[in-house]
Amino acid sequence: MNTIVAPCVDDTAPAELLKRGERLLEPDVYRTCLNGQPAVVKDYTRYRGTPLSPIARLLVRREARILQRLSGWKHAPALLGTIGGLALGMEFIPGQSLSAAQSVGIEVFEQLQYALTRLHAAGITHNDLHGTNVMVSGGVPVLVDFTSAWRSPRWLPVHPVSRQLRRSDMKNLLKMRQRLTGERPSASEAAQVADPRWVAGVRAAWKRFYRRFKGHA
Ligand SMILES: Nc1ncnc2c1ncn2[C@@H]1O[C@H](COP(=O)(O)OP(=O)(O)OP(=O)(O)O)[C@@H](O)[C@H]1O
Ligand SMILES: [Mg+2]
């Protein structure tokens, strides 16, 4: 882990900006080549020497650790390494994101559902599952952006919060499926993602508090 990858020295492959980090602790994301391999770099180096640098390093380390755990899995990009602690290099996934795709077959969602089940079985939740974080490459869905992902230690029994995070991943997936294929969740899927009473209670209490807070502000 924490392999230092030499920056690409291939002049013929200039970096192409995929997304400029504008909000707090958002990385610049660009496509480049690392050691001759097409790569994507998530780059937080603008935080070097600032008070936010330790947090940015932590984000890089966490995402790298998750990608390392998932190495060899076709539904996540391979980790290529970290660069100076503030940037992360990973395999470039050619294709389109789900949000850019014109039409997506139901079989992509079948694979995605299976992939998500496997991810959860490995104790990992993605926690930011939306169209721009799923690339479809040659008909295979590939999850990207594991910045918010969480891995529960294997020895820990499944915690209600982890269960809630899994439900929330699945809920996001079903929403994307409905939007892109028109297929509504089946009765058993709807039951699987329904909030338990304690979550509904916490949510309602939060809404009440927030409304009152806004009323006084
Ligand atoms: N390995 C990859 N291969 C191809 N494209 C990628 C890869 N990783 C990221 N991208 C593209 O770059 C975009 C931004 O990357 P990423 O989602 O990791 O950053 P982010 O700052 O967390 O973005 P957001 O806040 O929009 O989710 C992705 O939505 C995706 O389109
Ligand atoms: Mg993203």
Can you describe this structure?
The chain is α+β, with helices and mostly antiparallel strands. The protein has two domains: 76 residues, Phosphorylase Kinase, domain 1, CATH 3.30.200.20; 108 residues, Transferase(Phosphotransferase) domain 1 (Transferase(Phosphotransferase), domain 1), CATH 1.10.510. Helices cover 38% and strands 19% of the residues. A five-stranded antiparallel beta sheet has the order 1-2-3-5-4. A three-stranded antiparallel beta sheet has the order 6-8-9, with helices on one face. Strands 7-10 form a two-stranded antiparallel sheet. Helix 2 runs antiparallel to helix 3 and helix 3 crosses helix 4. The relative contact order is 0.11. The site of adenosine-5'-triphosphate has 19 residues, from strand 1, strand 3 and strand 5.
Please describe the structure with a list of short key phrases separated by commas or semicolons.
217 residues; alpha+beta; Phosphorylase Kinase, domain 1; Transferase(Phosphotransferase), domain 1; 5-stranded antiparallel sheet; 3-stranded antiparallel sheet; 19% strand; globular; disordered N terminus; binds adenosine-5'-triphosphate; binds magnesium ion
Mind sketching the topology for me?
Blueprint: E1 16-19, E2 28-34, E3 37-43, H1 53-69, E4 79-83, E5 87-91, E6 96-97, H2 106-121, E7 124-125, E8 134-137, E9 140-143, E10 150-151, H3 160-181, H4 187-193, H5 197-216
Antiparallel strand pairs: 1-2, 2-3, 3-5, 4-5, 6-8, 7-10, 8-9
Helix pairs in contact: 2-3, 3-4
Residues 132-133, 145 line the site of magnesium ion.
Organism: Stenotrophomonas rhizophila
GO molecular function, one term: protein serine/threonine kinase activity
Pfam families: RIO1
